[in-house]
Design goal:
mainly alpha, 2 domains, 5 helices, elongated
């Protein structure tokens, strides 16, 4: 049995959230989640419990791959400080910055 990815967990949590929002009875929602995602009823119940505390659906993230880059020491310090103050991960910051940069490059070149 393979381990769930973060994206799998987000999809399962969103399905649980949707069922609770539609006022599906807990036992019925638990069984539906278990069937749909191949979970135990106990695990499905945990997703429903967690979803009950959400204000909205969670973001389903794309799969990621590790890469190694070399950046100047000053840039690394600034990046780490921004990560601490913003609550974002370094990977999330770099991904957003690269997506913004690459988006401008497609329009100009």
């Amino acid at each position: 049995m393979r381990r769930s990815t973060k994206a799998d967990k987000a999809r399962q949590l969103n399905a649980a959230f949707s069922m609770l929002r539609r006022a599906i009875a807990l036992p019925e929602a638990m069984q539906a989640l278990a069937r749909e995602f191949g979970l135990s009823e106990r695990q499905a119940y945990r997703y429903l419990e967690e979803a009950a505390h959400l204000e909205g659906p969670v973001e389903v993230s794309e799969a990621t791959v590790p890469i190694t880059i070399k950046i100047p020491v000053k840039t690394a310090r600034l990046l780490r400080a921004y990560a601490r103050s913003s609550g974002l991960t370094i990977g999330a910051i770099v991904s957003r910055a690269l997506a913004a940069f690459l988006g401008t490059q497609r329009r100009h070149g």
